[in-house]
Amino acid sequence: MILAVLLGIAAGLIGFVPLVIGLKLTKRTTHGGTAASMIVLLLGLVVSFALLFAFAALFFGFDHENGIAFLFAEVVALSAAAIGYALWQMLRR
Q1: Is 92 helix (H, G, I), strand (E, B) or coil?
Q2: Residue 72: C-alpha distances to residues 22, 25, 85 (Å)
Q3: How far apart are the first and last CA of the chain?
Q4: CA distance 67 to 39
Q5: pLDDT tens for each residue of 25-75
Q6: Beta-carbon neighbour count of residue 55 at 10 Å?
Q7: For the whole prediction, is pTM greater than 0.90?
């Protein structure tokens, strides 16, 4: 179970990376206005969820018994990373 939680944390943090990349690309987007920014953010969100779903499907394929622990750790890690990143950005300014 500990391995499932650790792998879930790693998967959640990896799933957060496309969101950060999308946010940084949005800040650099100067052409296309709001629509271009929204498309970049939406693409980052879709890639993030695709990664999270793929990791969960792979883990359930290997260890079905500890799947809930993996999913819970994945969701908590993604949420904690998003909250921590937002707080870091607010305090940095």
Answers
A1: helix
A2: 24, 29, 20
A3: 40
A4: 32
A5: 887 766 767 777 788 889 999 999 999 999 999 999 988 898 899 999 999
A6: 20
A7: no
